[in-house]
Write a structure and sequence with these properties.
Layout (H helix, E strand, L loop, with lengths): L1 H7 L1 H9 L4 H19 L5 H7 L1 H17 L6 H9 L2 H10 L1 H24 L6 H23 L10 H4 L3 H18 L1 H4 L19 E6 L19 H4 L17 H9 L16 H7 L3 E6 L7 H6 L4 E4 L18 H11 L4 E6 L45 H13 L10
Parallel strand pairs: 1-4, 2-3, 2-4
Length: about 425
């Protein structure tokens, strides 16, 4: 029973070292859950029965340990839960394929031993007798009370204790609840935004010319690895030669998840005021109201996210994720395959046009997004995506010769990869 309680707080033990909590709250985040699980395990004469009833908790812990291995910190976030519903099987398989060994390790070192021990507990003839259960129920209540007292000391250390923020798995379950609530709002978008209008008009038309706008949504591309923004390798040579190109130097994405950041790009929502996304429509509708023929060509399956809801507002929505790649080894079409469809729409429509081109981008196995003759930086397969294949993590040594934020991010990457890097600010 005590071993099961310890196994149930393994993630809590990791959080004790990774989360920025006062020492009193950190200790409380260990003993309160431990006392709670001891009390729960006492509900049955055979603790293994309780463990199997809490199978979802064991699975949640396994997922949390995988994320802790990958990111070193933080509880399962709302966006991570939403990724389960917004990602396709092929996209998920690429991610899982790259962390397969981590998942297997957590399964064999934590999940499987816990369940085998629970099965052994059930098959044992011995049971917890009533006097033992009563005694440890009282003791667990006492330990729980000590944890609460430690929490009362937190304000002295400048910290306000929050169950949904400081205690696992309460924080993970709260995030799950929040994700479910958000997914429900996504599904009701067509109802909550039905009466919205931009009242958009286009009073002036260029003489003898039609207007064509193309908005490209490029997935998983970072400015820190564009030579246009100071990256040492020549990764954007054609862009740099374009006349009239304007690139913004001080821009930060408002989210690191597609299902949240792209809707913000396509609408008036922001990270600070995200709720308007459910009541207002997207830029696609704005152009549509202004008399443009709107076309969306997407290389990702976006049907379960707000992005898909926005894209379905277009006059023409071409979902290329429904098309099978020519090769059985590919999980998606090449992003370049979107261009013939764009040309086709250009040829068959004579009026003003607004395009949204949504690429698959550099997701995981990025070598599958382009033909082999585009493979400039090799090796580019999953087994070759390692920091050691980069020539250097070196950066400019003066603040005048670099973008400060980019240098800081590069330094962090080098530090996390344990690759030596000279200081950016001298």
């Amino acid at each position: 029973m005590f071993l099961f309680a310890l196994l149930f707080i393994v993630p809590n033990c990791v959080f004790f070292f990774t989360e920025p909590l006062p020492i009193t709250v950190g200790i409380a985040s260990l003993i309160i859950p431990y006392a709670f699980w001891v009390a729960v395990l006492l509900l049955a004469r055979k603790p293994g029965t309780v463990v199997w009833c809490l199978l979802s908790k064991v699975i949640l812990d396994g997922g949390q340990l995988v994320l802790l291995y990958l990111f070193d910190e933080s509880v399962i976030a709302v966006d991570m839960f939403l990724n389960l519903t917004s990602s396709t099987a092929s996209e998920a398989s690429e991610l899982l394929g790259n962390i397969f060994l981590v998942i297997i390790g957590v399964f064999f070192l934590y999940t499987l031993p816990t369940l085998l021990l629970a099965t052994w507990s059930i098959r044992m003839k011995k049971k917890l007798d009533n006097p033992f259960r009563k005694k440890w129920a009282v003791r667990s209540l006492g330990v729980f009370a000590v944890g609460l007292i430690l929490c009362l000391l937190a304000p002295i250390q400048g910290h306000n204790v929050s169950v949904k923020g400081d205690f696992y798995p309460a924080n993970a379950l709260y995030n799950l609840y929040f994700a479910i609530n958000k997914a429900e709002k996504n599904s009701n978008y067509h109802i909550t935004s039905a009466d919205f209008t931009f009242n958009a008009t286009k009073p002036v038309q260029a003489d003898g010319k039609r207007e064509i706008y193309v908005l490209v949504v490029g997935e998983t591309s970072r400015a820190m690895e564009w030579s246009l923004y100071g990256y040492e390798r020549e990764t954007t040579p054609r862009m740099e030669k374009l006349d009239g190109l304007v690139h913004f130097m001080d821009v930060v994405t408002q989210s690191n998840n597609t299902h949240k950041s792209v809707p913000i790009i396509l609408s008036a929502a922001s990270a600070e005021d995200y709720g308007v996304i459910y009541d207002e429509k997207s830029i696609v509708t704005a152009f549509k109201e202004a008399g443009f023929h709107t076309v969306v060509i997407a290389n990702q399956n976006l049907s379960t996210s707000m992005i898909g809801s926005f894209y379905r507002e277009a006059d023409t929505f071409i979902d290329m994720s429904k098309f099978k790649p020519k090769s059985a080894y590919l999980t998606s079409l090449h992003d370049g395959d979107l261009l013939p469809y764009l040309q086709k729409e250009l040829d068959k429509t004579s009026g003003n046009l607004f395009f949204v081109i949504h690429t698959y981008g550099s997701h995981f196995n990025y070598h599958e997004r382009y033909p082999k003759d585009f493979a400039r930086y090799t090796p580019d397969k999953a087994e070759g995506i390692r920091a050691t294949y980069k020539k250097s993590c070196a950066m400019p040594t003066t603040i005048r010769s670099c973008i400060p934020i980019t240098c800081w991010v590069k330094w962090r990457i080098c530090w996390r990869r344990r690759v030596p890097a000279p200081p950016c600010f001298t």
